Amino acid sequence: MRKFALAIHGGAGTILRSRMTAEKELSYKKALEDAITSGETILIKGGRSIDAVEAAIRSLEDNPLFNAGRGAVFTNEGKHEMDASLMNGKDLSAGAVAGVQNIKNPISLARGVMDRSEHVFMAGLGAQEFAKKINAEFMPDDYFFVQMRYDQLQQAKESDTMILDHTVDKARPDENPFGREKKFGTVGCVALDVHGNLAAGTSTGGMTNKKHGRVGDTPIIGAGTYANNKTCAVSCTGHGEFFIRSVVAYDISCLMEYKGLTLKKACDIVVMDKLVKIGGEGGLIALDAKGNIELPYNSEGMYRASKKEGEDLFIGIYKD
Ligand code: ASP
Known about the structure:
single chain; alpha+beta; Glutamine Phosphoribosylpyrophosphate, subunit 1, domain 1; 9-stranded mixed sheet; 4-stranded antiparallel sheet; globular; binds aspartic acid
């Protein structure tokens, strides 16, 4: 029996201590702790890493603080188009959905694609139809309405830009703390169970003001999510276009598999060098088959938490 371990993220971006209220910080920490607990409860009982990943992500999707599920950002048309994926490192099985609407827990729909279809990746209307077929939980539009995210959309439209979910404009400390937030509030989880199996999953609403049909890295196996028992499990958050072009999650696994690098070295190369060189802001959570955890990011902060069996819970938000 191995020792279990898991890590989660709630997005990276310019998350500054100076812009955070004590109350807001507490709610983020509580949300991260609740999500870790959902996954840990499964792993403690000897449950599977893929189930822990789904449970932790569902908890984050149900919390409007994060850009996934309930708190998903608005598209340019004022809608929510969500993406999610998960992968089982034991047999490389995977499931993913893109551009789904009104689905309460996109990660569970991705799980449905993995377990109950012959496909890996389903998008748009076809994914919606599949969701109905497997009785996925649908929610009305107002469930996904979060005023702060609606305000973000109006600002993004004014400047005609696509905004990432957690980044504040550092030059304007006096403005509404949510006003110019550019944060990647995507959520994700990586887990190692006592049977030695790794799993990873990621879920997002994407980027504020994104065009109808835009798909980021989150649902793309190898870009936003990857797991392989031979190497590691990875879940990313950041400017999706760059993460797709860098095939981030698989690149980390490849550096370990073909070059024999440690998880730490592989993460450093990809997040702090390769991504930075092409202007790709963000971070990721990664866990290897030995239970080592890395939580690297090249932005100002990243909502993150990790727990190893027999050790204390770690929660981090800022760089220091
Ligand atoms: N990676 C996500 C995307 O580009 C955004 C995020 O991480 O918040 O859709």
